[in-house]
Amino acid sequence: MVLLSLRLCFLVIFNLVSFVKCDPVIPNSFDSTTNPDVIIKNCTIGELCASTINSTTVHYYSVQYNFNAKTAIRLTTTMNYSIQQNAPILVVVRQTLGVVSWTLPYAFPNGMLYTSVARILCAYNELNRNRSHTSTIYIEISTSNSDLIDYSIQLDNSTEYSLETGVPRTVTISPSMPIYYKFTFPPRINNIFIEVSSKDELCAVVSVQSFDCPVYDVGEIGFRQGHYQTMSKSASFNIYLNEFTKRNEYLIVFLVKPTDVDCLNSKDSAMIQPAGIVDIERMKNATVILSSPNYCCQSSEQPNQTSEGEENVISTRGNDYQCQPSSTRVLSASSRGFVPVNQLAAKDYEYLKQKFRVYPQTMGTIAIFYSLPVIQLVLQYQANINSIGNEDICYFNFLCTRQFAMLTAFNNVFSNIGYCALGALFFVIVYRRDNAYTRFITKNPDISKEYGIPQYFGLFYAMAIGLFMEGIMSACYHVCPSRQNFQFDTSFMFIMAALNIIKIYQLRHPDINPHSAGVFSFLAGIILVTVVGVYYDKQWFWISYAIVHIITCLIFTAKIYYMGRLKISLDFPVNLCKLVRQHGIFSRPRYLSRMVILLIANLINIGFALFGAITQPESFPNHLLFVFLGNLAICLVYYIIMKAIHWEAFTPLTVVYLVLSLCFWAVSLYFFYDEVKSYEVQPAISRTYNQRCIVLNTYDAHDIWHLLSSFGLFLSFLSILTIDDGVRGKERKELAAF
C-alpha cells in the first residue's frame, strides 16, 4: 500500500515537470504569414518609388496631389519576375468613389505575362470634379509569396489628357498599358469624326465609351464596350452627341490585343504565344485626330457668293471654327449643277448599316406584339358567331363563303397566302443580295466607297417583314370583317408605304435618315388617328384632320428641301424663318428641282385634305391609305423622272419589274373596287353587294385582289431594290442627290 502511494506521487511529479519543460505542440495561428505587418510608405507625384515585399508585410502608400479636370493621373507598376515565383503581387488603388486592382505579373488568357502595368485613374471617382482641389490616392501592395519581390510604382500627372478637334495626338500603347483620352463636344457641335491611323500592323481595339467609372480599358471587357473597332492600321468613327445622354463628353480608349488573331484574314496563320512568355514586345504607335463635318467654306471677303445649282445648307456655329456670323455653310455643287451623292454619303458605312438594321428588329417586335392579341380577338369573334348564331357581327360575302374548321370564310383567309409567301421570298432575295454586297465591299473597299449608290438593306428587310405581316393581319381581319377590325387590314399597309417612301429618299441621301423609333412612333400616331376616324368620323374630325395634314406636309417639305438639316423640334419654325430670311425670301430657289416636286406634292396633298374635309368619305382608313399610297407613287415617279433627266441607265430587269408591277396594280385595283361587301352600311344592306365566287367556285373578286396586289407589292419592292443597279459603275461624285 505504501509502495503504491509512492508510485502515484512519483507519476504526478514527473508529469508536472514534463509539462513545464515541453515545447508547444500547436503553432500560433496568428503568425506573420496570415497577419502581416502594415508598413506606411511615402511617395509623391512623379517619383519612382521602389521597394521589396513578401508575405510578411503589406505596403501602404498615401499620395496627395492637386486634382484638375483637365489632367489625369497615370499609375505605372513594375516588378522583377522570376519563373519560380508561385504567387503574384496584388495592387489595389483606392480613390474617393472607386477601387481598381490588378496583379503583377498581368496574365492574359493565352498565358502571356507582363511585368509592367499602367492604368489611368478615372477622374469621375472624385467628389468635386468641376474644380481644382487637393485629393488623395491610396495604394496597397501585397503578396502571398514568401520570397522577396522587387517592385516599383510611379504616379504621373498627364497634362495631355483631353483631345481637341484638328489637333493630332500620337499614342503609344501595349497590351498591359492601355490609354484613353477625353473629348468634350464644343457648343452647338453635334457630330464628331474620329480617325485613327498607325504604320504598324499590331492588332488593337479602339473603343468610344461614355465617360463613366469604371473605364473599361483592359481585357476582353474593354474590347466590347461602346462603339468599338478592331484595327491594324486604321479605324474611324462618326460620333453623335445624342448617343451620350448623361453628359456631353466621351472617352476614346486604345488597347493592344495580346495576339493578332482578330486582325488577320486567316486566324489559323496567327502566331499564338505559348504560356509563360514574359514581356513580349507589342508596343503600338498610333495617331488620332478629331474633326467635325461642320466646316466653313466661305471666305470673309465673299460672304454672299455662292455657287449655282443645288447647294447644301447645314449649321456651323461651333466656336472652334473661324466662320462668318452666318448660321449656315454652303457645299459647292458639282460642275453639272447638282449636289452629288458623295457629299451625302460621308458617314461610316458600318455605323449606318447597324443603324438601319434596327428597322427590321423593331418591325419584328411590333409584328409579334401586335398580331398575338389580334389573333386572339378575331378567333373570339368567330367563336361568338358559332355559339350564338348572330351572323350580323361579321361582314362576309355570304354568297361565296367556304368554311373550314371553325372559320366561316376560310377562302377569304387563305387568299392572303400570297402576301406571306412573297414576303418570305423577298426576304430571301434581300438576304442574298446583302451577302453579295458585303463580299463585294470586303474585296473592293476602295471601289465601294467611290462608285454607285451605298447599299443598306435594313429597310428592305423591314419591308419584307411588312409584306409577310400584311398577309397575317389581312387574314385576321377576314376571320371576322367589321368596322372595328378594319385597322388590322390596313396597319401594315401604312407601315409599308412609309418605309418605301423613306427608302426611296434614302437611296440618294444615305447620311440623312430618321431613327426607327421616330418612324414607328409616327406610324403609331397614324394608326391611332385611323382608329379615332373609324369611331368619330364627324365634320369636326375631318376639318381637324385636314389642318393637321397640311401642317405636317409643310414641316416635311422644309425638312426634305434642306436635306434633313432642319431638325423637328419646338424651335423648328424659328430656325426655318431664320434660314429663309438669311438666303432671301424672293431669291432664286436654292434647289430648283426639289422645289418643283415639293410644290406639286403639296398641291396634291392639299387636294387630298380638302377632298376629305368637303366630301367626308365613308371610310376614313381607306382615304388615309390612299393618301399614303399616293405619296409613295409621287416619290417613285419623281425618282424615275429624275433618273431619266440625268441620263441614268435602267437595267432590263428593273424595267421588267416596273412594267409588271404597273400591270398587276392596274388589274388588282379593278377587282378592289368591285365591292362584294361593306362594313360602312347595315349588315342587311351589305349583303345586297354580295357576289358569287368567280374562280374555282371558291374565290370572289376580293380574293383575286389579295393575290394580284401581293404580286404588285412584291414587284414594286423589287423595282426599288434594283432601281440603281444601272449606275453601279458610275462614280458617286457624278450621281445627283435628287
From TrEMBL:
Xref: InterPro entries: SID1_TM_fam
Compartment list: Membrane
Major location category of this protein: membrane
Keywords, in A-Z order: Glycoprotein, Membrane, Signal, Transmembrane, Transmembrane helix
Membrane topology: Multi-pass membrane protein
Residues covered by region (Disordered): 299-320
One Gene Ontology molecular-function label: double-stranded RNA binding
GO cellular component: lysosome; plasma membrane
Residue ranges of the TM segments: 413-432, 453-474, 486-505, 517-536, 542-562, 591-614, 620-641, 653-673, 704-723
Signal peptide residues on this chain, from the entry's feature table: 1-22
Keyword Glycoprotein attributed: yes
Keyword Transmembrane helix among record annotations: yes
Family: Belongs to the SID1 family.
Protein name in UniProt: SID1 transmembrane family member 1
Organism: Rotaria magnacalcarata
Taxonomic lineage of the native organism: Eukaryota, Metazoa, Spiralia, Gnathifera, Rotifera
